[in-house]
Amino acid sequence: MRKFGKILVAFVLMLGLGLLVGCSREKEIELEGIEVTPASLTLDSSEIQELKVKPVPAEAELPAVEFTSSDSRIASVGKDGKVMGLRAGTAEITIKVGEFTKKITITVNPVLVTKISVSKDELKIKVGETDTIAYGVEPDNATNQVAEFASSDEAIATVDGEGKVTAVAEGTAVITLTIDSQTAEVTVTVLPADVLPSSVRIKPLESTDLAVGEEVQLEGFILPADAVQDALVWSSSDEAIAKVTAEGKVTAVAVGEVEISLTLENYPDVAAAKITLNCYVPLPERLKMTGPDKIVAMEGEEYQFAVSFEPEGTYTEVTWSVDDETKATIDPATGKVTALAAGPLTITATSKALAALKVSKMIIIEDYVAPEVIVEGKASIGMNLPPIPYKATVKGNYLGPNVTWSVSDETILSVDEAGNVQGLAGGTANVIATSVDDPEIKGMLEVTVVDVGDNPNVLVKAGVEADGGTTVYDGITYYNGINALPNLTDVGPLLRDGSKVFVLAGEYASLPITISAKNVSLIGPNAGISAVDGVRVEEAKISGKITLDGADNFTIDGFHIVDKSPIRSTSGLRTLTIKNNYFDKVGAEGGGGEGVIYLKADTDEIQYHDILLEGNKIEETSTGGPGFRG
Length: 630
What we know:
The protein has about 625 residues and is mainly β. The protein folds into 6 domains: about 35-110, Immunoglobulin-like, CATH 2.60.40.1080; about 115-190, Immunoglobulin-like (Sandwich); about 200-280, Immunoglobulin-like, CATH 2.60.40.1080; about 285-365, Sandwich (Immunoglobulin-like); about 370-450, Immunoglobulin-like; about 460-620, no CATH class. Strands 49-46-50-53-56-59-62 form a 7-stranded parallel β-sheet, with no helix packed on it. The chain has a 5-stranded parallel β-sheet with strand order 51-54-57-60-63, with no helix packed on it. Strands 52-55-58-61-64 form a 5-stranded parallel β-sheet, with no helix packed on it. The chain contains 1 helix and 64 strands.
């Protein structure tokens, strides 16, 4: 039994292997051709149909199919065999599969016209005239858009293949336009031909006398009255005596007789009409010259002067001259002056009719000053500090002083209409001043904005650079020209509420300074050292006035102060601390006066405890001025 089982298993395995070998040896079916349906296509414009491709025999595998069109303007075909009709005509679609090729004929039907529209359905023209019929068709993509034209009566009106209608004789004819099966009609009415002009006339004038410089309007007309109108052509026999415009306006130029003629532009055989004018000259009683009082000696620049005549309507011809041709030249006919050199100049206009009749004007010639705008101010400012005023100076002969302000980068700088500049962010930008009189003229100054941090304080040190570099004081870095200054004069605009001004030893003059911020302290090198009995270090000596404008809680400590009435208050303030200062030779000249401190404030606003005076040494002037006065 065991042996039989082994034989059976072996037989089954061999049978399975035989089947596998038999399957792998089956023969692959070859492609013998292709079949395309439909065999041909007829399409309308924009219609789409699909070509179907099958292998022959059907059991064969169909490789990639390639479609091409013989004329893609008539019919296009996609990779998927979809064919679209584009315009009337015939094209072939080639289908290629490997070595097998089929060609299918595609016929695209024409698009017929459904409607003809004419621009106007009635024409009125005169015998001998022509007009052209304009038309359009629907749909826009119609295959044939060229109309055939026909006239119902060619004895009345004819029409050519372009729609040009010619009027032959009086009457009515109908022009018919035909495309495909559609028609449109235009009714043509032929009118009588124009009546031609036989003559021209000039309307008589009340007077044929015309003063030199005066004008007269002539009127012409064509006869007969129903004749074709034509352009009137006016001419003068002598334009040196009288000129005439195309509209018939005559101007007397000089003394003499002149003949004005009238003809027709398109009818030269019609005889001219003529009128004779006598031109004469009434002399003016007075001449008056107008023109600039100042001019500039600049190459290529001309200045126009003019003369008015009183009474009006008198002789107007003058000759122009100047008294010094080294300073200026003048056109003797026009009065245009070209300046050559600076200085006074007399311009004269003399009547050509009477040498004694003249007028003169004295002017001044200035040297040319090139137009420019100069911007002055700090080259470096601090970020987020109070605005700093900048100055613009305008130069140029014709420019006023006014400017408009702007900046090249509003993320770095801002400027108001008065030229006050504020730094907004670190970086460099230009402050620009533009002339109001000539926006092409502008000046600019490059300004660098430095981030000085949150330090609200200011350092004053004699001799510090006005612009550039840094100074370290008490471990804090100050930027020269920004919050480190060589004098007190420019400190005021930098102060914020709570600012401290550290003034190092030295002599500082040329105040005043105005302080409006609150809680401000001016701290000198002897701050905290009594001026009465303390041992003082080298002083910071200041002169000039310190004006407090609402500066509550102001402190000044440790200075040597020289001036009459050096500290003043212009409005109420709450707290004033003055200590450790040496007031040297203060008080008003001649005795009395405002004293060292002059407080102009209501007593309700300043109480006794609001003022602290401590450690100050005060020496009055020899004239006996008081120390303090409120």
